Amino acid sequence: MTLIDWLLVIVINVGIVIYGVAAIKRTKGSFEWYLAAKTLPWWAIGLSAFGTAVDTGDYVAVAGGAYRFGLSQLAFWWLGLAVGWFVLSFFVIRPIYRTGMFTNAEWLEFRFGRASRVLAVLINLQSRTNVLGNIYFSLFLVLNVIAGVPDSISWIVVAFVAATAVLYIITGGLKSDVITDALQSIAMIVGAVVLWGAVWWAMGGWRGLTEKLSAIDPKLPDTLLHVGGYSPGGVPPIVVVSGMTIALITYAVINQYEAIRFLGARSEWDFKMAAVLASVVTAVTLWFNVTMGPLARADFPELKIVDQAYPLLVQKYLPPGLIGIVVAGLVAAAYSTFDSIGVGISSLFVRDIYARFLVKNASDEHYTLVGRLFTPVVIGLGFLYVPFLAAPGMFAFYIRLAGAIAVPLMTVILMGIFTRVHRATGLVGLLVGLTYGISAILADFNKWGWPVWYTSPWWAYLWNIVLPAGSMFLTSAILDKVRGPVEEEELMGLISTGREPDAEDLREMVATRLKVLEGTWLQKTLREAPRMPEYPFPVPSGGLPWHKRPAVWAWVYLGVVSVLLFVVLW
Amino acid sequence: MEEYQEPAIPLKMLYGAVFLFIIAVLVLASLFYGPELWWVKVLIGGGLLAFSALFAALYLRSMGRGRGD
């Protein structure tokens, strides 16, 4: 990298960090720090959700993943993430937003009890610190391979980026996070387009790519250039695509660090529209990133560390100046996820562990301070994963763990939102799913010779929906016989389809529902959370025009990507 | 302790104008390294300059409004 590239990387990212520190109002209370006082508009949340979901790891690891798995990964990003965001914003977030809660784990205790809340925190912590590890390693590869920076200095730069992200989060909380994410997402999109354009052009487009892959192996174009092309031994392509789709539905549904920006919306319309915007921006950007994998395979067919694919393309195809823009986008992608994980996991720790079990009745300032102090701890935990990431590739490592550990939590959340299962079933679903998931990992890792349909990470995505949901229905049916069906009052305000009282009654009802919260800071914040409007503008008497309805745009989006994935590119 | 005040919107406009201008200059300066993909650099640099000018114009207009012009 030349001096001009370094200057671009530094100016773009330091400029955004300074804006995050200086231009966003310093927050005082917990409501402001964690939820931006519920003032965020749809476009900021949408861009931020994209910037949070797509990190440096998703540039580098996605290209590395597509190097092996080809375009099948598009299902993951185009369909899985969008469906996840739609389910989150149209169904899961609504009860949490209306009842004045701050976290999804908090909702889990109201719906399924204390153990579910704690397990949700632990699963979120494991899954997000894993992602942090991916980002650290990706950023290291970018600096090491593209810029030729020595190992130790690359790691120092990675640590510096993480530390500066902490800086603006500590001062501005969620608002700083979302506004800087929106700016960083612009740098990310420009970087992705620039690299893709240069490589695509040099490769001779789709035809040139197909010819080069055929020359390496005549079967490669079929494997890499079709969504249904990747099929590891014993696993049909549709199971792979379903697994990838479920992986990102899970991502969007369970992750507090995604949910928290939707909870900071100024109205319910804003968080729904944000999901549509985030899906569109992600689909466009990830087309550029996923196709980098086959392009790299055509150019560097013998890579041992597949995650080097993206940095090598940058190095080979871009001139000075444009390298700086792409690397600036990669660093921006790291920032936009560091900050989000910092705020999101910190909110879980403070509300769902610290205030719930350790210090129950301190001042609001105290809990905000603890949240701020915990942020660097979360960011630091990600470094523990780095030693495990190099050999299988970051993508494969993430896929393995997410199917086993995160999917059961998604199943339990969706069962809690869409069905009337008993309160006691949440823990059953989580334990059944985790037991299966961990046993599949152990059998796979130790090569016990168990069948592929049990041990494969792709099958695990399906079983971890079927098994937890089945066990929850069964347990609930037994409890129905023993205790009778769940009372309406127990579900009121907590599920998507249930009867809902007036907003003020709902707030008081929820605040007093759990006796253990009596007199605590958590109860106080639930009572004091302001009631937010459904729309940020007056609604005409004839209802919203079609172009202002988030559901219309969500269906249009799903229709278009389904045709592209399952007809055009299948 | 004096309470921190969030900078006014005109100052944010000025910051945006200067920030984008610096990036544009750097991108255009990279043309001195060689002609490869020159048109991409000109496109990006030109776009950034346009946005920078827009922010500068918005800043000047809001300053004028502030003085009652």
Question: What descriptive keywords fit this protein?
Answer:
heterodimer; A: 570 residues; mainly alpha; Sodium/glucose cotransporter; globular; B: 69 residues; 2 helices; 72% helix
Total separate domains of chain B: 1
Percent of residues in helices of chain A comes to over 70%
As for the CATH topology of the domain at 3-400 in chain A, it is: Sodium/glucose cotransporter
Percentage of residues in DSSP E strands of chain B: under 5%
The helix/strand class of chain A is mainly alpha
- Main beta-sheet annotation of chain B: none
Q: Total number of β-strand segments of chain A?
A: 0
Mean pLDDT across all amino acids of chain B: 84
Q: Which quaternary structure do these chains form?
A: heterodimer
Largest interface: A-B, 25 and 22 residues
Unreliable stretches of chain B (pLDDT < 50, length at least 5) are none
User: DSSP strand (E) fraction of chain A?
Assistant: under 5%
User: What's the alpha carbon Rg of chain A, rounded to whole Å?
Assistant: 23 Å
Average per-residue pLDDT of chain A, rounded, comes to 87
- CATH hierarchy class name of the domain at 3-400 in chain A: Mainly Alpha
CATH architecture label of the domain at 3-400 in chain A: Up-down Bundle
The major β-sheet of chain A equals: none
Order of helices and strands of chain A: HHHHHHHHHHHHHHHHHHHHHHHHH
Q: Globular, elongated, flat, extended or rod-shaped: what is the shape of chain B?
A: elongated
Gyration radius over CA of chain B? 16 Å
Helical proportion of chain B, percent range: over 70%
Model description:
- The complex is a heterodimer of chains A (about 575) and B (about 70).
- With about 575 residues, chain A is an all-alpha fold.
- Chain A has a domain at about 5-400: Sodium/glucose cotransporter (Up-down Bundle).
- In chain A, about 75% of the residues lie in helices and about 0% in strands.
- Chain A contains 25 helices and no strands.
- Chain A has helices at about 5-25, 30-35, 40-55, 55-70, 75-100, 105-110, 115-145, 150-205, 205-215, 220-225, 235-255, 255-265, 270-290, 290-300, 310-315, 320-360, 365-380, 395-420, 425-445, 450-455, 455-485, 490, 505-510, 520-530, 550-570.
- The two termini of chain A are about 40 Å apart.
- Chain B is an all-alpha fold and about 70 residues long.
- Chain B has one domain (about 15-65).
- Chain B is about 70% helix and about 0% strand.
- Chain B has 2 helices and no strands.
- Chain B starts with 8 loop residues before the first helix and ends with a helix.
- The mean pLDDT of chain B is about 85.
- Chains A and B meet through helix 1, helix 8 and helix 16 of A and helix 1 and helix 2 of B.
